[in-house]
Amino acid sequence: MEERATGSSRKNRGYEDLKRRILTCDLAPGAYLDETEVAATYGMSRPPLREIFRQLAGEGFLAIQENRGAQVTPMTHKTMRNFFMVAPMIYASVAELAAQHATAAQVDRLKSTQARFRAAITARDVAERATLNERFHAILGEMADNEYLMPSLARLLIDHTRIGMTFYNASTPRFAEQQSIAADQHDAMIEAIEACDPKASSDLAIAHWELSREQMQQFVGAPALNGTLVMTG
Description:
A hairpin with a 3-residue loop joins β1 and β2. This protein starts with a helix and ends with a strand. It has helices at 2-23, 35-42, 46-58, 77-101, 104-123, 126-144, 149-167, 173-194, 198-218, and strands spanning 62-65, 69-72, 220-223, 229-231. Strands 1-2 form a two-stranded antiparallel sheet. Strands 3-4 form a two-stranded antiparallel ribbon. By secondary structure, the protein is mainly α.
């Protein structure tokens, strides 16, 4: 029983760590994962690792390529064009529904995540800030409680976080100002959700998106010859 629990814990740790490494671009978009190497890293055999790969593929983190194995989901010119097209609609819809369906327990988790988000900004921890921002918006998705929106939001947040890792620079005054505004907008969204105000929540989500959209677009360059997005800056 203990051995089975240890194996399950090792599998869970591997799953969570691979997610974090993909979100923070420690594993680059488009990179192929060597099964033997990854299995050794997490101290597990190939069968449970393949289960992790299949789960991550189902969630949009990986693509399983026949005869080539698992590949970190690429970011292409096409996917980025689609990202910028649908992001404001999804974020606004999620925020609107969150204000209608959030539970007290979910609001508490959102506030806790927000406190950690602010701490990461203060510490200038770019990776922690990015992953906590992803978590904040994922909790909004849980609040929205819509089985059609949640998969789209989850996929959107993967690329939003990865794009963010390419241009966030905590040392510049402009970035510091934007992060302060973003944190304030998070607080305002929490207040709108607690007040059960769908319109205010939705409007804040759009303003929150617009805050980062222009800068994000500046750092998305032309597609490379192989179709993988070139990040500049």
